[in-house]
Amino acid sequence: MRPGDRLPPLEIPITRTLIVAGAIASRDYQDVHHDPELARQKGSPDIFMNILTTNGLVGRYITDHFGPRARLCRVAIRLGAPNHPGDTMMLTGTVEEVDGDTATVRIVGANGLGKHVTGTVTVRVEG
Amino acid sequence: MKGEPEADEEFEARLKAYEGRAAAATGVGRDPVNQPMIRHWCEAMGDTSPAYTGPDAVAPPTMLQAWTMAGLTHRPDRTAAYDELLTLLDASGHHAVVATDCEQEYLRPLRPGDEITFDSVIESVSGRKTTKLGAGYFVTTRTDVRAGGALAGTHRFRILKYAPAQRTPAPAERRPRPVVNRDNAGFWEGVARHELLIQRCTACSAPRFPWLPGCTACGGPDWDTVAAGGEGRVYSYVVMHHPPFPAFEPPYAVGLIELAEGVRIVSNVVGVPCDEVRIGMPVRLEFRRYDDELVLPVFRGVGP
């Protein structure tokens, strides 16, 4: 792994099932993640993915790429455009920095509305 | 909020006073780290890493916060101070919440059986910010997560507490308006009277459509009109499935219709399922009103 390396993109269909399954798996029962009517009352056109699911997907994207010896050290994400049902999120990543067995990867998850998530992940790949 | 700056400053000062105070004090995870929750998580995320299964399984590091979540019925392990801050925001109309940032550091892996405890502090409360969702305040907390008493990870989390912006419903989309100019004004005047007028050259009698200033056959500048009788056939067609344009509901059929008078016109083929439209299908002219300003000629399929 070298600075500038690009990770193969990962396309994630944003289904209603993924949003709800991710919310429940993270024990997040906020209504905006499962109830479209209540989401609308709060100014959102539909339910949207919770941040814990986005975090989990970002972690998976990195460990899928670097393999079973990869250990996540740090994940820092910021959310932008929400992930609504019917959209698709394309995760892309670029290695920014390499220090011994540790890499910092800049990630972007873009959907039809714009950038859903931007952030950096630090991962250690034991030799 | 203009006109009440002092009240705003006072309110923001009240919010700011919570910075540095505990948000959770020795919260206890509802369940120890456990394989079923790990499996549910991995299934939802589509994560098939072998690190999360088997006798040496660890939990996905990104589950860190999940182990601290209160769940559906349990009251969150919040301090009175954090409850007060959230109540202040709720009571001032900022009752909706959305998470915006999450920064986690993982110091050691969590394994099934680990008992989780956590402490959290209110790091900062922003000034009032205007966002797409509505105006509100960003509240940042920092949480230390421990397993069996030893620090396993830290978690900085930012939420926006906001007053939902009033959504004005979008006006129903209207069909695009025709471009009416001096060369085609007569055509649209005819449509308004439910007549489909075809130009005819007064020199050579050639019909022409769409409307043009000169004859396409002899170049003659003079013309009169004939009203189409309304009979025609589908000369060619497409069925639009995608993309959906405002005011159009796919799928719909767009036909190139050859009129009995010998000219062709593009319009919708209606009255038959669009997958039954065929080349050569007889059609009959009718006029359809789309809104209080727009009438268009369309063609109804009249059987094979």
UniProtKB/TrEMBL annotation, chain A:
<feature type="domain" description="MaoC-like">
    <location>
        <begin position="10"/>
        <end position="100"/>
    </location>
</feature>
<dbReference type="InterPro" id="IPR002539">
    <property type="entry name" value="MaoC-like_dom"/>
</dbReference>
<comment type="similarity">
    <text>Belongs to the enoyl-CoA hydratase/isomerase family.</text>
</comment>
<dbReference type="InterPro" id="IPR029069">
    <property type="entry name" value="HotDog_dom_sf"/>
</dbReference>
<protein>
    <submittedName>
        <fullName>MaoC family dehydratase</fullName>
    </submittedName>
</protein>
<dbReference type="Pfam" id="PF01575">
    <property type="entry name" value="MaoC_dehydratas"/>
</dbReference>
UniProtKB/TrEMBL annotation, chain B:
<dbReference type="Pfam" id="PF12172">
    <property type="entry name" value="zf-ChsH2"/>
</dbReference>
<feature type="domain" description="ChsH2 rubredoxin-like zinc ribbon">
    <location>
        <begin position="188"/>
        <end position="223"/>
    </location>
</feature>
<dbReference type="InterPro" id="IPR012340">
    <property type="entry name" value="NA-bd_OB-fold"/>
</dbReference>
<dbReference type="InterPro" id="IPR029069">
    <property type="entry name" value="HotDog_dom_sf"/>
</dbReference>
<protein>
    <submittedName>
        <fullName>OB-fold domain-containing protein</fullName>
    </submittedName>
</protein>
<dbReference type="InterPro" id="IPR002878">
    <property type="entry name" value="ChsH2_C"/>
</dbReference>
<feature type="domain" description="ChsH2 C-terminal OB-fold">
    <location>
        <begin position="226"/>
        <end position="288"/>
    </location>
</feature>
<dbReference type="InterPro" id="IPR052513">
    <property type="entry name" value="Thioester_dehydratase-like"/>
</dbReference>
<dbReference type="InterPro" id="IPR039569">
    <property type="entry name" value="FAS1-like_DH_region"/>
</dbReference>
<dbReference type="Pfam" id="PF01796">
    <property type="entry name" value="OB_ChsH2_C"/>
</dbReference>
<dbReference type="InterPro" id="IPR022002">
    <property type="entry name" value="ChsH2_Znr"/>
</dbReference>
<feature type="domain" description="FAS1-like dehydratase">
    <location>
        <begin position="28"/>
        <end position="146"/>
    </location>
</feature>
<dbReference type="Pfam" id="PF13452">
    <property type="entry name" value="FAS1_DH_region"/>
</dbReference>
